């Protein structure tokens, strides 16, 4: 009977650890990451060198999406996820992270034509209280040239040590005349842990332990 009690206690511990391990982060949209609002993503979009960054109401994945276009010549249009109209970085703590953590992002992208492989993709920057941390930005080209539909891309980025905030930049296009669409920008939100599920598992294990004690 002592062995049964010990086994029940071990089961409770294992279930608790399993609940903790499986209650991983949940995907959460970054500010206007669905591009549904007819306002700038995170209140800021950028077009330069004859390029534009606009919000389209239909044709996304689904509904609205962000269109980076260099139809006017040049390149460099992009959408920047920031906290407010002052273009402040997003808070790492709000999403359950700190400096040095590796963070996963996910977004959809579609090539609407005119692009060749270049600098179309995602860039992440680390920020602290003093501003942008020099050298922390990492940009990845996903080579979407000639894609005909929306594709989902995953990106992992390790925040700089001491970082307290971050910005995400969806970058396109890489050449004059190109058009790239972006939609559904997510972060793997470590603060969104499904605690009720973990508590239920642990409670069930404890109930089993109590049952064993009563049987004894």
Entry keywords:
216 residues; 6-stranded antiparallel sheet; single chain; 34% strand; alpha+beta; 2 helices; Jelly Rolls; disordered N terminus
Q: Strands, helices and their partners?
A:
Layout: H1 2-22, E1 26-29, E2 45-46, E3 52-56, E4 65-69, E5 78-81, E6 90-91, E7 102-113, E8 121-128, E9 131-132, E10 138-141, E11 151-158, E12 165-171, E13 179-189, H2 195-215
Helix pairs in contact: 1-2
- The number of helical runs is 2
Question: What proportion of the residues form beta strands (DSSP E)?
Answer: 25-35%
Rg, Å, rounded: 23 Å
- Kindly name the structural category: alpha+beta
Give the uncertain stretches in residue-range form: 1-23, 198-202
CATH topology annotation of the largest domain: Jelly Rolls
Span of the ends, CA to CA:
7 Å
CATH architecture descriptor name of the largest domain? Sandwich
Number of strands: 13
Overall tally of structural domains: 2
Bin the helical content.
Answer: 10-25%
How would you describe the shape? globular
Overall CATH class of the largest domain: Mainly Beta
CATH superfamily of the largest domain: Galactose-binding domain-like
Largest sheet: 7 strands, antiparallel
Mean pLDDT: 77
Order of helices and strands: HEEEEEEEEEEEEEH
